[in-house]
Amino acid sequence: MEFPEELKYTEEHEWVLVEDDLVTVGITDFAQDSLGDVVFVELPEVGVKVEAGKPFGVVESVKAVSDIYAPVSGEVVEVNEELPETPEVLNTSPYEDGWMIKIRISDPGELDELLDADAYREFIEEE
Prior knowledge:
CATH architecture: Beta Barrel
Number of helices: 3
Strand content: 25-35%
């Protein structure tokens, strides 16, 4: 399983790429593997305000329906428009083509709550 070092992670299995005051969010390789074949993705619209720890979208697979949680608070400034049409991208490319949304952070201090790759790896080994 892959856990890119440059990313941050949540205990709900989202990944976060930080670029100044913007973060790109997706689900981890572990999450997509646990879900199985993804068949449906629901994402918020641009302009929606999200709150850290609260759901912003849904991923449905052949096994389960799962909420996707915002890792930080802020405003959605971009949405991956391809995902609703090709949800299987979450299985084949969770860290590149499978990104979900980009958020302009309202509280950069929330980034300190996220896990680095080593801490995330340890977390999932304990689950």
